[in-house]
Specification:
single chain, about 190 residues, alpha/beta, Rossmann fold, 7-stranded mixed beta sheet, 4-stranded antiparallel beta sheet, globular
Length: about 190
């Protein structure tokens, strides 16, 4: 009698986590193009990214407990693999200055930032270019302080820098901004 193979059937939560992870990959491979994620982006993205092998920091004490349920370690900003900042303030901008940007021998040891933004609409226009962008792409992003863009420009010196995921909670969207993406053309405010 032939041996029967069993095929694991993913749970609804596993399917949702996989779909979120695939959305994150799409957003990073096509910078500037918002991608829809199911459910609450902050928690869904955390479930898709965090596990026993990574560390995180967050500005939200309530979500910190939820994020720890993944097995990931909560650490200080300067040691974290993933940084979840659900709102902008002066302290956050200061904390960004200490983030890991990798090293020439290990650029992947940089931090990945998850930051709030409003994607699309009539926000300030930015021009993205680089790998994954066909020529130049005009992108409207609001809710991100000008100082962030300056800090990012200083941190991103190929192959070093941060990968950024901008989360628009209201619209359920994520936009990837890899360290290789060049950002220019900030409109006058």
């Amino acid at each position: 009698m032939p041996e029967l193979l069993s095929v694991p059937v993913p749970t609804p939560a596993e399917r949702r986590n996989q779909a979120t992870f695939q959305a994150l990959l799409r957003s990073l491979s096509t910078p500037g193009r918002p991608v829809r994620v199911e459910g609450d982006p902050w928690f869904g993205v955390a479930l898709a990214l965090l596990d026993l092998d990574v560390s995180f920091a967050t500005t939200d004490k309530v979500l910190a407990a939820e994020y720890q349920s993944t097995g990931a370690r909560q650490v200080s900003w300067d040691q974290a693999d993933y940084l979840f900042a659900q709102q902008w303030d002066r302290a956050l901008l200061g904390d960004l200055k200490v983030l890991r940007i990798g090293s020439p021998l290990a650029p992947a040891e940089s931090a990945t930032l998850l930051l709030p933004a409003e994607l699309g609409g009539s926000g300030p226009a930015f021009e993205f270019s680089g790998p994954g962008v066909n020529g130049h792409l005009k992108v409207h992003i609001s809710g991100v302080p000008d100082e962030f863009w300056t800090l990012r420009a200083r941190a991103c010196r190929f192959p070093l820098g941060w990968d950024v995921l901008l989360l628009d909670q209201g619209a359920g969207l994520v936009m990837g901004l890899p360290r290789t993406t060049r950002v220019a053309g900030l409109e006058a405010r």
